[in-house]
Specification:
The complex is a heterodimer of chains A (about 800) and B (about 160). With about 800 residues, chain A is of the alpha+beta class. In chain A, about 15% of the residues lie in helices and about 30% in strands. Chain A has 2 domains: about 300 residues, Rossmann fold (3-Layer(aba) Sandwich), CATH 3.40.50; about 325 residues, Beta Barrel (Porin). Chain B is an alpha+beta fold and about 160 residues long. Chain B has 2 domains: about 30 residues, no CATH class; about 110 residues, no CATH class. Helices cover about 20% and strands about 35% of the residues of chain B. The two termini of chain B are about 15 Å apart. In chain B, about 35% of the residues are buried. Classes of the chains: A alpha+beta (about 800), B alpha+beta (about 160). β5 of chain A pairs antiparallel with β7 of chain B.
Chain lengths: ~800, ~160
């Protein structure tokens, strides 16, 4: 028989009266400086202050993002990600620094605390005070070159000076290797390099200096460059490189086709090639400055940065000599471009503790802007330094598969999208609260640079209120129009109940009710027998499955049951999901007599106990990748169901379930261990048939959805990695018991208008104290009309 | 740019000695002429003021240049190199152009005056060939104040 059901009219209005709100995000887009090929930055406007802009353009620099200088290299984007140079040690080998009266730690000539340094030495005067003696008897020949360079790197933020360096929180070590004329004396440079090599924790050395030779011309091999530089100097360079410290050199200002010999000799020697960076200077247009040497034969270790008219410290002695009032003056040269790159390396180094210094250099080069004009590698090498790109992921971000070694042979990585945890609503609120603000490391596929990300970003919350959708309300209120066929023979009866083309249930029942075998999409037929609830409980979606076994409420709902009914005394339910991965078994004891259909004050009690096994999930919380769980998480449960006709067409129903869940740990999973999770669920309901009139029914129900009452799991997530490429994990104990208890209140009304038409209404009120303010109380209302043709 | 100062005296002493006038007259004449000749010879003078220094405010390449205070660019140049307060003291600006690194400098040596013409001698210092030097553009220059700056020749050694 073909019954054609058509929905004639549907008015279904789930109204979220006090619902959770959502938020939108936004970001500040950067602007290009000067157009052309200069990088476009996603600078964080919080950091593009007047101090930020001043370096590139004096008091007229104006405000806003993308100004020449720091804006050219997108430093503001790096600041926005937390990189300021803090904890990074930089040695400045130069003319020294202007040391205030008697102080060895502050530049106090103009304003205190403009920049600080923690150690210093004078390789010219052989003392411990690296004074930038720029006045030189009134000739001011040195004129504070070292002070200017140091300020470009580390002038502090928010000081009275009005500008800050590129790595304003970095730690300086000042080595005076140039005399007051700005020239080395004897082996002062090489002694300075040796001295710097001995500084504990030093990462970067800035050398805004060079010779008049040209690499590739003056020398073109390791041996010829060693001859040109001298064995003392060359050995110092090799030792410095072998120590893994980055040396940043100015390319030189002679408009030559390649950098100077001292800077460029690394190109021929692998001992210090991978930690050497040569810097050419650009002007405010972004193009190579007219005076700057080109990258030439050293293009593979060369990069460009602004170097023309950059403002920084102008020492008091120089002021006196020049008789100017401002301590901020502009200087030009690759001397000024080099400290920007030294500072840029410090920002990268701070941002990615997992990188070796050689990898920091490699990242600097790989992320430089190299399109348009900057594609000319013989001029710009790798291109213009771009700290926005350098501090974002190169390639894809991935999670490490539990290993402590970033580069181990057996170390596995998972793309971020392959690591998910969809939590059961039974503990999602507790999980969300526990994970708030917690971070872990992930790594990019380029060099395993470590990024912080919120642990919660991998977790999706389950929500019971999300079941209050239009679709679920329709399913809840839609009266089933099933067709039941029952055949009897000598051995018993066989009943098939269909809904459209789908089999709802089938059951063989032997003569004398001795044996029943069946299939049903709903787990339990317990609720299907007693009027007046039949009209409410005949589908599994009703009332969030209020009376269904919550531990079987997983998967596709392909459930089977088998009962040996001897006067209804006991039964057996089995459960499996569509994939066959989950298995459940429950024994149902019915100590009272079988439900008496139509019998006044009939009652029924069912006691359930059993076990459920879930593959790669628990409590229907699915997870993948580094959050995966094992093959056999187990839940042992028990429960009770009770229903009773109270007379006058009233029926009382109640159910309660509790269980212990044991999470199966997967190898290398971030879900490291757990205590058993105690869960509960209960429902109380009262329904009345013949409400006002015979064709009307009403029901009122209180339900607490499944909830964790006790238990926790331990997340072991990577939180730190160091330059040795070792990953450290931290334990994050997550108490899965939600602080609040969700209670649902439901009123359902149903009226039969004609045999072929039906009207239903449902009001649901949800209370959950764990929800954010304004949504602790939620209300849903649905109205449903159905006519069958 | 280099101004030639003509200094010469051509005397035909031998011819004079060959004349049959009295040796005394010759002697007196020679004496008188010698005195006259002495007043025309070049002499080293001291400038009213001289100062050589280095500016780092220049951001582009510049060449050798002499500017007198009469030049409209004189004040502008001093402003640009950060010595604008010096303009009242000097009337002559001399530079040998931008240099690619520290280690270069100019030093005033002397002025030789001949009539109203001045030959100014400056000494340039260069860095040693394989020394390391701060890689900053520098702009060595000298400021002088002289009586007459109309005709000058600058010689940089």
């Amino acid at each position: 028989m073909n019954n054609i059901f058509k929905i004639f009219a549907i008015l279904s209005l789930p109204l979220l009266l006090n619902a959770c709100g959502g938020g939108g995000g936004g970001g500040a887009a950067g602007e290009a400086v000067g157009g052309g090929t200069i990088p476009t930055c996603s600078d964080n406007s919080t950091y593009t202050t007047a101090e930020y802009n001043y370096m590139g353009g004096a008091s007229g620099a104006g405000s806003g993002t993308g100004k020449y200088g720091l804006g050219t290299v997108c430093a503001g984007a790096a600041y926005g990600r937390g990189a300021t140079g803090e904890g990074i040690d930089i040695a400045v080998l130069d003319t020294g620094i202007s040391v205030g009266s008697g102080s060895t730690t502050d530049i106090t000539d103009i304003d205190s605390n403009i920049a600080t340094f923690v150690s210093g030495a004078d390789l010219i005067g052989s003392d411990s005070v690296p004074q930038d003696d720029d006045n030189n008897g009134g000739t001011a020949l040195g004129s504070g070159h070292g002070s200017h360079v140091a300020g470009l790197i580390a002038n502090e933020k928010n000081n009275s000076g009005g500008l800050h360096g590129i790595a304003y929180d970095s730690t300086l070590h000042i080595l005076k290797v140039l005399n007051s004329s700005g020239s080395s004396v004897g082996n002062s440079i090489w002694s300075g390099l040796d001295k710097a090599r001995g500084i504990s924790g030093l990462d970067i050395a800035n050398l805004s200096l060079g010779d008049s030779g040209v690499i590739g011309t003056s020398c073109n091999s390791a041996s010829s460059c060693e001859s040109a530089i001298g064995s003392t100097g060359y050995t110092a360079l090799e030792n410095f490189g072998n120590a893994g410290i980055i040396a940043v050199w100015a390319a030189g200002n002679s408009s030559d086709s390649s950098p100077s010999v001292m800077s460029g000799s690394a190109i021929y020697d692998d001992d210090f090639k991978e930690t050497t960076v040569i810097v050419v200077a650009t002007d405010s247009t972004g193009n190579l400055a007219s005076y700057s040497n080109k990258c030439g034969v050293a293009s593979s270790i060369c990069i460009a940065a602004p170097g023309t008219s950059l403002y920084s410290n102008f020492s008091s002695n120089a002021q006196s000599s020049y008789n100017v009032n401002s301590w901020k003056q502009a200087m030009s040269g690759t001397s000024m471009a080099a400290p920007l790159v030294s500072g840029g390396l410090a920002l990268i180094k701070q941002e990615f503790s997992s990188l070796t210094n050689a990898q920091v250099v490699d990242r600097l080069f790989a992320t430089a802007s190299d399109t348009g004009e900057y594609a000319k590698s013989t001029i710009y090498g790798h291109g213009m330094m771009n700290l926005d790109a350098a501090t974002t992921a190169v390639g894809s971000l991935q999670a490490i598969g539990g290993s402590n070694n970033l580069d181990g042979i057996g170390t596995s990585y998972y793309n971020l999208m392959d690591n998910n945890f969809t939590s059961s609503a039974a503990f999602s609120n507790a999980l969300n609260n526990a994970l708030a603000g917690q971070t872990m490391e992930v790594y990019d596929s380029f060099d395993r640079a470590n990024f912080k990300t919120n642990v919660s970003s991998f977790f999706t919350s389950g929500s019971y209120t999300s079941q209050n959708t239009i679709e679920n309300h329709i399913l809840r209120l839609e009266p089933k129009n099933t067709h039941k066929v029952k055949n009897k023979n000598l051995y018993g009866s066989f009943t098939v109940e269909t809904n459209g083309n789908y089999i709802e249930s089938s059951m063989f029942q032997s003569t004398g009710d001795f044996l029943a075998l069946g299939f049903n999409q709903s787990t339990n037929s317990f609720e299907n027998e007693v009027d007046p609830l039949f009209n409410f409980f005949n589908d599994s979606n009703f009332g969030n499955n209020y009376l269904a076994n919550p531990y079987f409420n997983t998967g596709s709902g392909q459930d089977y049951f088998m009962s040996f009914n001897s006067n209804g005394s006991f039964g057996l339910d089995t459960f499996t999901n569509a994939n066959g991965n989950d298995l459940g078994l429950a024994f149902n004891l019915n100590p009272l007599s079988n439900s008496d259909e139509g019998k006044s004050n009939a009652g029924d009690l069912q006691i359930v106990f059993g076990a459920n096994y879930e593959q790669n999930k628990f409590l229907n919380s699915t997870s993948t990748g580094v959050f995966a769980t094992g093959d056999l998480s187990n839940t042992n449960f028990t429960g009770v169901k009770y229903k009773k006709n109270l007379g006058n067409d009233f029926t009382f129903v109640g159910s309660g379930f509790a269980g212990y869940t044991y999470i199966d740990k997967a190898a290398d999973s971030y879900i490291d261990s757990s205590t058993p999770l105690l869960t509960s669920e209960f429902t109380l309901g009262l329904a009345k048939a013949n409400f006002i009139k015979e064709d009307q029914r009403i029901g009122f129900f209180i339900n607490q959805p499944q909830r964790v009452e006790d238990g926790s799991l331990n997340l072991r997530v990577p939180t730190l990695s160091d330059r040795d490429r070792t990953v450290t994990y931290s334990n994050l104990n997550v108490d899965l018991e939600p602080e609040a208890r969700q209670i649902n209140f439901d009123i359902i009304f149903n009226k039969t208008i004609t045999e072929s038409s039906n009207l239903s209404a449902n009001l649901t009120h949800v209370q959950n104290g764990d929800h954010s303010n304004g949504s602790k109380n939620q209300n849903f209302f649905s109205l449903f009309y159905k006519k069958t043709f | 740019m280099v101004l030639k100062i003509k200094t010469s005296f051509l005397y035909f002493i031998k011819k004079l000695f060959n004349l049959s006038v009295s040796k005394l007259l010759i002697f007196l004449s020679f004496f008188i002429f010698s005195c006259s000749s002495y007043s025309m010879q070049a002499e080293e003078i001291k400038p009213e003021a001289a100062s050589c220094n280095i500016s780092r405010s220049i951001s582009e390449k510049k060449d050798f240049e002499i500017l007198t205070i009469k030049n409209k660019n004189f004040n502008q140049r001093l402003n640009k190199i950060g010595f604008n307060n010096q303009k009242l003291k000097y009337n002559l600006f001399i530079t040998n152009g931008t240099k690619p690194s520290a280690g270069y400098s100019l030093k005033f040596d002397k002025i030789i005056k001949n009539k109203n013409k001045f030959k100014i001698y400056l000494i340039e210092t260069k860095p040693n060939k394989m020394s390391a030097n701060a890689a900053v553009l520098i702009y060595p220059f000298c400021l002088l104040k002289v009586d007459n700056s109309d005709q000058i020749e600058v010689i940089i050694k």
